Amino acid sequence: MKISRTIVVLDAADLDAVSSFWAGLLGGTVDKDDEWHRVSVDGDYRLAVQFAPNHVAPEWPDGTPQQIHLDLWVEDLVPAHEEALSLGARLLKPAENLDAAEGFQVYADPAGHPFCLCWG
Question: Hey, where are the domains in the chain?
Fold first, then answer.
């Protein structure tokens, strides 16, 4: 599987506050959609913030675990999906339309950490 981009995605109830914070800290800018903000630095995506209305802040390192997942952009979903499964991933949420120009599927690693295989 060839991964063309890796993006760390933070869940947040307040997209503006979180994306503005990280853009400021990293010296970047924010590109906004309704439920998704991308933070870019020097034209490269560095991280994203996804709307999660019921987000509860982690109490890590002394309480609940961290809340984060990876988005991995792939050239071809089918072989990437098969490889991920062969390595021990579990499919948590299939794409709504595998023929769409862009999309994602949600998986978990063997310990349950979520990640997405994305295309487009």
Answer: 3-119
Rounded mean pLDDT, 31-44: 95
- Non-local (6+) Cβ contacts of 61 within 8 A are none
Predicted pLDDT of residue 39: 96
Cα–Cα distances (Å) from 6 to 17, 46, 77, 108, 110, in that order, read 23, 9, 15, 16, 19
Q: Mind listing the pLDDT tens digit for each residue in 65-75?
A: 777 888 999 99
Q: Please tell me the CATH code under which domain 3-119 is placed.
A: 3.10.180.10
Which tokens sit at 8? 């760390």
- The two three-digit tokens of residue 80, written as one number: 């990437």
Cross-strand partners of 1: none
Q: What's the chain's length in residues?
A: 120
pTM of this prediction?
0.73
Please tell me the distance from the alpha carbon of residue 82 to that of residue 119, in angstroms, as a whole number.
15
